[in-house]
Design goal:
This protein is an all-beta fold. It has 1 helix and 33 strands. It has one helix spanning 137-142; strands spanning 3-5, 9-12, 22-24, 28-31, 42-44, 47-51, 55-57, 61-64, 67-71, 76-79, 85-88, 94-97, 105-108, 113-116, 122-125, 129-132, 146-149, 154-156, 162-164, 167-169, 172-184, 189-190, 193-202, 206-208, 211-212, 218-221, 225-228, 231-234, 240-243, 248-251, 254-257, 269-272, 275-278.
């Protein structure tokens, strides 16, 4: 049979025989064991899915409405659908990962995915870390109207090339894996930290207002301007490359080269109205 949750709190701590799927319309659904949701599709129309311990959810997903997915403090929720997830977006939709006190790690797999009416939803990481598990991680963000990373929260691209249509917030975007490109495909205003093995590709005029101390190079597309109002640090001989005519880098914060034994080149047009440090 099927199992539907319309409100309240339901915690499933054992494997269950639910062949017809689980539907979460409202309330909180806690998962504390592999197989707790049976073998059918998990449909989320609202409410919150919470991993209460280190656990993998292997059900296929059907996602719509305003909903949240989180892992309890100190735990990892591994979202690993057997074959696919499907998301239907709508105007004003809010999709949330993590929350204060529910600040574990959510690992996101995309074996296959379909998104209906993309470009309407906002994805907000409000606590913990949302971590990529495969090379299709960027598909999740590419279908969103915008992505916001809250203070104290993080997105970890984990060595997978990832693009954001619009990146906002004051949290952290990092790369704990191998070298990978973080691409801002639309105008972004991010005041958080960029770190790890990532390189940055700026395809639309954007502003960085936090700590930009990633290991890779920065490429600014033709006609785009990257404005730094925070602390932009080169820790090696990487520089800022031009993707074509009209590419520009404007510094009104701190722009520093503190590592490397050679030269870092700013190949775009460059306006420095802040602090320039070489040492």
């Amino acid at each position: 049979g099927a199992f539907t949750i319309n409100g309240g709190t339901v915690i499933l701590n054992h494997a269950n025989t639910i062949g017809g799927g689980v539907t979460l319309n409202a309330g909180l659904l806690g998962v504390g064991a592999a197989g707790a949701l049976g073998t059918g599709t998990l449909t989320i129309n609202g409410g919150e899915l919470l991993g209460t311990t280190n656990v993998t959810v292997a059900n296929n997903l059907s996602l719509q409405g305003n909903f949240a997915i989180a892992a309890a403090h100190g735990t990892t929720l591994n979202i690993n659908p057997a074959s696919n997830w499907v998301m239907n977006q709508s105007a004003g939709q809010l999709i949330t990962f993590g929350a204060p006190g529910q600040d574990g790690t959510v690992i996101w797999h995309t074996p296959s995915a379909v998104v209906g009416a993309p470009g309407q939803a906002t994805l907000a990481v409000q606590g913990g870390t949302l971590q990529g598990a495969d090379s299709f991680f960027g598909f999740l963000f590419g279908t969103m109207l915008q992505t916001t990373v809250g203070q104290g929260a993080a997105i970890d691209i984990s060595g997978f090339n990832t693009g954001f249509t619009k990146l906002l917030g004051s949290g952290t975007v990092t790369d704990s894996g191998g070298a990978a490109a973080l691409t801002l495909t639309g105008a972004s205003n991010f005041s958080g930290a960029l770190s790890g093995a990532l390189s940055l590709v700026v395809n639309a005029s954007s502003t960085l207002g936090g700590s930009s101390a990633y290991a890779g190079a920065t490429t600014i597309a033709a006609g785009a301007t990257l404005t730094n109002t925070g602390a932009f640090t080169l820790s090696s001989d990487v520089g800022i490359a031009s993707g074509g005519a009209g590419a520009a880098f404007v510094n009104t914060g701190s722009f520093a080269k503190i590592g490397g034994s050679g030269t870092s080149t700013v190949a775009t047009s460059f306006a420095n109205n802040g602090f320039l440090v070489v040492g």
